[in-house]
TrEMBL record:
<keyword id="KW-0732">Signal</keyword>
<feature type="domain" description="Xylose isomerase-like TIM barrel">
    <location>
        <begin position="75"/>
        <end position="287"/>
    </location>
</feature>
<protein>
    <recommendedName>
        <fullName>Xylose isomerase-like TIM barrel domain-containing protein</fullName>
    </recommendedName>
</protein>
<dbReference type="InterPro" id="IPR013022">
    <property type="entry name" value="Xyl_isomerase-like_TIM-brl"/>
</dbReference>
<dbReference type="InterPro" id="IPR050312">
    <property type="entry name" value="IolE/XylAMocC-like"/>
</dbReference>
<dbReference type="InterPro" id="IPR036237">
    <property type="entry name" value="Xyl_isomerase-like_sf"/>
</dbReference>
<dbReference type="Pfam" id="PF01261">
    <property type="entry name" value="AP_endonuc_2"/>
</dbReference>
<feature type="signal peptide">
    <location>
        <begin position="1"/>
        <end position="25"/>
    </location>
</feature>
Amino acid sequence: MQRRNFIGSGLAALTAGITVPQAFAQAKENGQETSADPGARIPCPISLAQWSLRDEFRSGRLKNEDFASFSKNTFGISAVEYVSGFFKDKAKDKSFLKQLKQNSAIEGVTNVLIMIDGEGSIGAETLAERTQTVENHKKWVEAAQFIGCHTIRVNAHGTGTEQEQAKQATDGLRALSTFASDFGINVVVENHGGLSSNGQWLSKVLADVKMDNCGALPDFGNFGKYDRYQGIADLMPFAKGVSAKCINFDKNGNVIETDFAKAMKIVLDTGFRSWVGIEWGGRGATKAIPDIKAAKLLLDKVQQQYFDY
């Protein structure tokens, strides 16, 4: 049995008995054709964030090495975004990283980025803490380069006043980006809680870093009380990727939390034409697969319908 067929068979139970949102009920059961208009071109190619399938990776039903194959053969998505927490002890494991790289190459899947968590606060109060955080991230910069990613995502958390955290985050990001530049790797900050969820604050920090390889990963969610559409607009001038966060869908297949057509218009009006990553944040393992399919259909649809390219 071929590897890809084994993977599909072993995970078939995940999709059993699942109801796809009404608007996409006619989508093919096998997920191989998930475009609103299969074969049509879209301005921004679509990638899949590993976090979307967190229950499968945490349970061991899906292995990191099989992510690329599963993404392509289940959703028709040929680009993936990794999460460091799912292989936190393997950043320097060349055998493991080589397997990730080889499996992606075999499937024709692009490794886009690694989302880094749990390695300290880039905006920590003391220089010693920031220096240690930068040191902790260096192995991920090297791992990202090794597997062919162009970016790592970091968090700009810290302590102190808004001004103090801005200065500290700027310092930490500049130090890490300086190191990453030698590896051809971008360092991006996601609006991911705390002051980073304030688009104005984060855009000012990124402007102050003043490095071409330091930018943003605007997430359609995660803005808290800050207006999400304003936040997306604030961060897009610095964007090196976009995270299309989705949680719940209505009966027409639209994301409840965010107007994807409005969000994508903001994205495309800036001239951005790179990866838009689906990040499903809903609850319930049985919902993950149909909702990811629904998100891809929606992203395809809004790009094809509303934009002249």
